[in-house]
# Entry
Amino acid sequence: MARTGRRKGSPDTKDAIVNAARDAFAERGFDGASIRGIATSAGVDPALVYHYFATKEELFLAVVGAPADPSVFLAEAVAGPADEMGVRIVRMFLKVWGDPTLGPALLALVRSGLAHEWSARMLREFATSQILRRITSRLDVPPDEAKLRASLVGSQIIGLGLARYLIKIEPLASLEPEQVAGLVGPTLQRYLTGPL
# Structure
């Protein structure tokens, strides 16, 4: 007699969870997807999802193929005075984009987002929920204004990454990171704390 009920832990189970999460995040976004719903779709108990992935964020990062956990590298960028955050954010992103391991993985994620609608949705969710929201949470502004400021910061950072590391527009591509931070940081600062 075949066993019925929920699946036990195995590599197939982990794949089923990731596949169910991929569908849930694509349909409902990061905020709308729930661990319980993902577990139900995968045919497992929610506790088994937490066995493989400690948090919903960790599961999301696995789904999008993120090269690193943004909370780790963002902590330093958002710490400190809000009126100096622009330069710190540019420095941090240049460090990540320029890293020999993280940079190519991040560029692959962005390339995929440019070529496929599903990937674009996942990249948008990744940028919004895992990066930009963490940055703007440090600002004392209303939620709607925070979203606008976050989108402006995102446009600048993604544009900078594409121009410097993918298209390699000179002399921007060859400038020292500190020069770039000094030139682009004030623009980000205006988006973060200046008048809109």
Observations:
- The chain is about 75% helix and 0% strand.
- The chain has a mean pLDDT of 85.
- Residues 11-64 form a domain with the Arc Repressor Mutant, subunit A fold (CATH 1.10.10.60).
